[in-house]
Amino acid sequence: MLAGLLFGLSTCALWGLTFVAPRAVAPFTPLDLAVARYGVFGLASLAFLLRGKTRRALLDIAPSRRLLGLMLGGAGYIGYFLAVAWAVNAAGAVLPPLITGLMPVILPLLAHRRSQTLSRRSLLAPLGLILIGLILVQLGTAAQTGTQMQPMTGAGLAFSVLALAIWIAYAQLNAMVLQAGDPPEPLAWTCLQGLGAAIGALVLLPWTSLSGGHHFSDAEVGSLVLWSLLMGLAGSFLATVFWSEAARRLPLALAAQLIVAETVFGMAYGLIYEMRLPTWAETAGAACQIFGVCLAIARFAEAAQALQPKGNTKCR
């Protein structure tokens, strides 16, 4: 379990960079960064697939699973990004993250129905703390930045729920494949998703500033290139490898709760970028999330220990 926890937290530390990258590449848009990022992800995946070992591991994956891997890359990355972008455009930057942030709360409850690793009552306290923490962080950040809370329109609600559904479907299908009796090799599985994400990025290319007709300074282009490499190689490729390793080792109900660490890391990166201290709401929210995850880890560890057969005591 310890290795799975380390892989999961490392994934969240890399995913947390997403909270500062769009601001760091301005005046390029988040769509520009997403297309460049997932293009790098796809190129890195293709480079690894040219290696004999990874190529052989790919051929060992059943054709139906290869197609699923490509679909997870396209929908899980590009589809989720578009759904969130449209939700924010329709309802502002405060309410949609509160809905998509419910994933670490909803997914463990769904996973519980399948595995029942813990009783539902045991999950209520950690999930409640995580939910309170998510709300406090989002509202505290909105108050600090002066973001206005717009009413949730029908389109904003629909796209927010769609983004949440995509994330939940991705996590469940990914865990189902990686926890099967014959799971694919994590690097080959990551490369499949990288190719799927790159295909989606190519489809979106005509709607970006990268398609031409825009003028940017050398410094702005350099910043986009550096952040695209960082997000493509670390925030996407390496993070997906780490998440695949975590999904193999941890129950889905626990792995899903670890994703709240992405919010905590993202908030920390944002504070460093803005060179300011957290507000009381951000501090309290992060503390609630961390305590909730720690409580969940403790309860899963107790459950795992209780399931282990007790050996006979022998006298020496």
UniProtKB/TrEMBL annotation:
SUPFAM superfamilies: Multidrug resistance efflux transporter EmrE. The chain crosses the membrane at residues 33-50, 70-88, 94-111, 123-143, 155-175, 187-205, 225-243, 250-272. Coiled coil: none annotated. It is a multi-pass membrane protein. It comes from Xaviernesmea rhizosphaerae. The lineage of its organism: Bacteria, Pseudomonadati, Pseudomonadota, Alphaproteobacteria, Hyphomicrobiales. Residues 3-137 form the EamA domain. This is EamA domain-containing protein. The keyword Transmembrane helix applies. It is found in: Cell membrane. InterPro entries: AA-Vitamin_Transporters, EamA_dom, EmrE-like. The keyword Magnesium does not apply. PANTHER family: INNER MEMBRANE TRANSPORTER, S-ADENOSYLMETHIONINE_S-ADENOSYLHOMOCYSTEINE TRANSPORTER. Keywords: Cell membrane, Membrane, Transmembrane, Transmembrane helix. It comes from the Bacteria. Pfam families: EamA (PF00892).
